[in-house]
């Protein structure tokens, strides 16, 4: 459902009002063409009254809903039609302005409202082609040839239809992409919050160790000073037990591989990252097999949420479609890092294969899902410098996603070497200048 701000429609209508006034005054006063000024001014005055009525009853920062905005644009079309009726109909060159409300509707309102407004504009254009007052002209009885008037009608109708659907299609694509990117940002923000929560747990485990040790020490000293079987002795034993339980919980946090470091900032070898993801998404029904073929040392990569979640989504997607097995084949050399994710399922549907990576393209039609999983993965991985390719291995033999990175982009070791080389070059330059 489309929406438009009150301020926007008011501004557009004020511009139309001033434009209409200037056009009438110039033609009537400067060019001395006889115009029906009183009916024309009344028509413009109605537009002014509508604007003032909206100003009195609405906040400029409010939003018109789709139906209300369409009603106001319909009024603009009718007001323009009345004004053109008084000033020559389609013979008036300002008849082109019929395209403006239709184009505005196509960019901000729903398709239904746009179609209704387009039909209204075409109806007004058709009526003006048949019924209108004479075009003001110095020589009386001026008439354009009928074939030329018909051509104007055809051009306005075709222009309205073309602009209506073209502008709506472009605006709809923009809206869909904006919504999909917003969903991606929300997803990534959630993963960052989870990573931050892990860091907070690690910090808590570290900071709470000392005060808990102090509490345990004092509780044990107090316990020795109380007679066995007394109520205070029993309470202190319970307190000691609870302190010991807290220390065990903190110890378990300390044994967490991610403790003490934010996973979003940790570094690990590329092969270790792939193996970790394979263990995470494999289960009893679907085996996730990892194979490597390399001619150099594995790259050192940042275990960022973009990389982990982007790859994780694709691997999880493959396990859901696979019959029994998912293959993670990765390779690297001095120039490139490549990962191939293949399953033995039915493969990608032919009608969506070329569209994969676009928002709202679902690999599970009829599942009720939004079709953003592959788009989110593609967006996240492209942020890391990757290029993704989707294809089927063989008909009925599974789908394959190939992800490639230039090694100098993803490899942190290369960045360190580049920084070291740059620093060394700077030192050599300073030394040569000193000599």
Q: What's the rounded overall pLDDT mean? A: 79
**Over all CA atoms, what is the radius of gyration?**
36 Å
How many strands in all? 9
CATH topology of the largest domain: the name is Heat Shock Protein 90
Strand content: 5-15%
Biggest sheet, spatial arrangement of strands: 4-6-7-9-8
**Helical/strand content category:** alpha+beta
CATH superfamily heading of the largest domain: Histidine kinase-like ATPase, C-terminal domain
Tally the helices. Answer: 12
Poorly predicted tracts of residues: 257-265, 417-425, 427-435
- SSE topology string: EHHEHHHHHEHEEHEEHEEHH
Roughly how much helix do the residues carry, as a percent range?
Answer: 55-70%
- State the end-to-end distance: 73 Å
Largest sheet: 5 strands, mixed
Number of domains: 3
Query: What is the second-level CATH architecture of the largest domain?
Result: 2-Layer Sandwich
Report the top-level CATH class of the largest domain.
Answer: Alpha Beta
Form type: elongated
3D architecture notes:
This protein folds into three domains: 141 residues, no CATH class; 60 residues; 149 residues, Heat Shock Protein 90. It is built from twelve helices and nine strands. The protein has a five-stranded mixed sheet with strand order 4-6-7-9-8. The C terminus is likely disordered.
